[in-house]
């Protein structure tokens, strides 16, 4: 392993001083001055390592370490430096800082790669400010909807274009952030799991085979309001009882689909009139069903609709369901999953092939290049919270794997003991810069 884990830890600590408030976690909302200060920190460190750095029109920071054959597509890696309100110090930040440490260690050891390596700090990964997540990687993958983006506003009423302007970016050029498939050979993201699976299974690393996407629906249940004291039990049309049946059926159906990793949640429930002495006449439920297997999500939906028909008959309730969004799950490149798994085996790392329940920049990058997503354990599965934590030993495993896979894809150029390259191309120029860097 090349990475210097103490240096990685120190850099994590340094960047996490930005936006930290005592006992309140870290707040670096997308495009805020704190987020931009973290990007400035990152840019400064990358420049110190001799990388060329550019910021695209969406605010993605792209730092490049030139390969010996710069015309080849770049091997990319990265994550994000923006956070939720009062977030933790690892979500996103780890992937960017581990990438920085990888570059530092490559320079220190004078490693030359054929393909250039690009390290990316993605813009606006978190939905905390504008309600939309992974905007930076969507822009890179050409998946942005400019019209709807233009209408977004944060809680203070600042529009998305205004937020971009505040950090010196021009919304009208945002589509120029799109990358061509020809420019990128592969993308790798190291991220904390943000869930309990790795910790519970005692594995050190997770390798995502796919990224789940939600299908979301709103269900409204119309019953009849009546006096809670004078209406006999068998004469009620209680909308909330109907909702309770729906929620328990949702759990049952999802449990039966557990083998596919599908999960379902009814996270919002509005009850009217919301009085202790009135039988509820109207309820709205918001339901989120996620998985990587579309047919498995569909089975749950079908079970719900069957129940709706039953509730109308049995309880006299009028039920309407509206699909709010239906996103496609992402299946990650099988070859990349296999490569990561075999690297774990070679390094003696206990790994788990798993699906990612949460969305990440990797899901957008997967549409333009082979993509790998590496997880390390999160203590108690906690994330988006100040108590988010992964130990330095856990980080070390993930960082070593990231470095290994990037090096494998970018193809380390072998140097003979005499200092000349095996390849027949004249790379004396690169050799020179390599020497200079290792002196620094
Ligand atoms: Zn993240």
UniProtKB/TrEMBL annotation:
Enzyme class: hydrolase
Enzyme Commission number(s): 3.5.-.-
Coiled coil keyword on record: no
Domain Peptidase M20 dimerisation: 216-309
Amino-acid positions noted as binding Zn(2+) 2 in the UniProt annotation, renumbered to this chain: 91, 126, 384
Protein residues bound to allantoate: 216, 277, 290
Family matches, as Gene3D superfamilies: 3.30.70.360, Zn peptidases
Keyword check for Zinc: yes
Entry keywords, A to Z: Hydrolase, Metal-binding, Zinc
A molecular-function term among this protein's GO annotations: metal ion binding
Chain positions recorded as Zn(2+) 1 binding sites: 80, 91, 191
Basic residues bias spans: 430-440
Disordered: annotated segments: 420-440
Pfam families, alphabetized: M20_dimer, Peptidase_M20
Record text on cofactor binding: Binds 2 Zn(2+) ions per subunit.
Required cofactor(s): Zn(2+)
Family statement drawn from the similarity comment of this UniProt entry: Belongs to the peptidase M20 family.
PANTHER family in alphabetical order: ALLANTOATE AMIDOHYDROLASE, ALLANTOATE DEIMINASE-RELATED
Protein name according to UniProt: Hydantoinase/carbamoylase family amidase
Organism: Paenibacillus foliorum
Lineage: Bacteria, Bacillati, Bacillota, Bacilli, Bacillales
């Amino acid at each position: 392993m090349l990475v210097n884990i103490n240096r990685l830890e120190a850099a994590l600590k340094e960047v996490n001083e930005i936006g930290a408030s005592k006992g309140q976690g870290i707040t670096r909302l997308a495009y805020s001055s704190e987020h931009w200060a973290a990007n400035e920190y990152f840019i400064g460190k990358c420049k110190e390592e001799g990388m060329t750095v550019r910021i695209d029109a969406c605010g993605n920071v792209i730092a490049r370490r030139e390969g010996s054959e710069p015309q080849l597509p770049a091997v990319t890696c990265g994550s994000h430096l923006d956070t939720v309100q009062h977030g933790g110090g690892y979500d996103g930040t780890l992937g960017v800082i581990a990438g920085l440490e990888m570059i530092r260690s490559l320079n220190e050891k004078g490693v030359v790669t054929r393909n250039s390596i690009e390290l990316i700090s993605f813009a606006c990964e978190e939905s905390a400010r504008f309600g939309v997540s992974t905007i930076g990687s969507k822009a890179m993958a050409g998946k942005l909807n400019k019209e709807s983006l233009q209408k977004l506003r944060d809680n203070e009423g600042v529009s998305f274009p205004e937020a971009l302007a505040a950090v010196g970016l021009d919304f009208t050029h945002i589509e120029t952030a799109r990358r061509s498939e020809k420019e990128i050979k592969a993308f790798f993201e190291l991220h904390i799991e943000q869930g309990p699976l790795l910790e519970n299974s005692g594995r050190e690393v997770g390798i995502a085979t796919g990224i789940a996407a939600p299908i979301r629906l709103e269900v409204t249940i119309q019953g009849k309001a009546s006096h809670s004291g004078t209406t006999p039990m068998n004469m009620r049309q209680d909308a909330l009882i109907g909702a309770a049946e729906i929620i328990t059926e949702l759990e049952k159906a999802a449990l039966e689909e557990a083998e596919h990793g599908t999960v379902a949640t009814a996270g919002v429930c509005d009850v009217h009139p919301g009085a202790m002495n009135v039988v509820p006449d109207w309820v709205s439920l918001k339901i989120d069903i996620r998985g990587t297997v579309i047919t498995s999500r569909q089975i749950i939906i079908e079970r719900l609709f069957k129940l709706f028909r039953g509730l109308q008959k049995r309880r006299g309730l009028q039920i309407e369901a509206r699909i709010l969004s239906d996103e496609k799950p992402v299946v990650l490149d099988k070859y990349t999953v296999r490569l990561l798994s075999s690297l774990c085996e070679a390094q003696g790392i206990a790994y788990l092939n798993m699906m990612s329940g949460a969305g990440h920049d990797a899901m957008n990058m997967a549409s333009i290049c082979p993509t790998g997503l590496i997880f390390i354990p999160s203590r108690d599965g906690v994330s988006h919270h100040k108590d988010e934590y992964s130990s330095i030993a856990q980080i070390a495993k993930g960082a070593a794997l990231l470095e290994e896979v990037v090096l494998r894809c970018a193809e380390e150029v072998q140097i003979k003991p005499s200092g000349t390259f095996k390849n027949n191309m004249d790379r004396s120029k690169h050799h020179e810069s390599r020497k200079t860097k290792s002196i620094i």
